[in-house]
Amino acid sequence: MKFPEKTTVQSHTITVVPRYCETDQAGVVHHSVFPIYFELGRTELLRANGLAYKDLEREGFYMVVAELHVKYRRPAYYDEKLELTTECTKVTAAKIEHTYKLIRPETGLLLAEGSSILACVDDNGKPKRVPQFMYPDEHGSRIVEKADR
Question: Which residue has the higher pLDDT, 132 or 1?
């Protein structure tokens, strides 16, 4: 597969609607579901850049979760429309960092936030350099930090 020259989309927002099976008897989304939403966010951010994880894996690049953090701020409920923003905040030779914000769009209320670090490995689980095109700047520098806003 021919990879793009570089990634151009560093932040992407998707709609998440909690399913009944993701909630407890009170209709509150279970804490174990938020990492699944975060994975959806990463997958769709990659897709917004014209790729899928299967494309990376076909070329021998596997992204494994090395760290995951979740801060639960307010409950999310069954069948409510939520927005999850995923941002790629740092890329180094061996890892990719993301941050996540899950909000209730009608009010802007932050329900959960988090971060993850993905390590790039080969098909034997050995560390591998992150593909060059995943560095968001045009020079392919080894470390790219999120710009202050």
Answer: 132
The residue ranges of DSSP E strands in 10-81, in sequence order, are 11-16, 62-72
pLDDT of 73 above 60: yes
Highest mean pLDDT among 3-7, 120-124, 135-139 belongs to 120-124
Cβ neighbourhood burial of 68 (10 Å; 0-12, 13-18, 19+): middle
* CA distance readout (Å), 64 to 27, 47, 79, 121, 136: 31, 17, 30, 7, 20
Give the pLDDT confidence score for residue 3 in this predicted structure.
83
Among 146, 37, 6, 39, which Cα is nearest to 29's?
37
pTM of the model: 0.88
CA atoms within 13 A on the CB side of 100: 32
Question: Which DSSP helix (H) or strand (E) runs through 38?
Answer: helix 34-48
SS3 79: coil
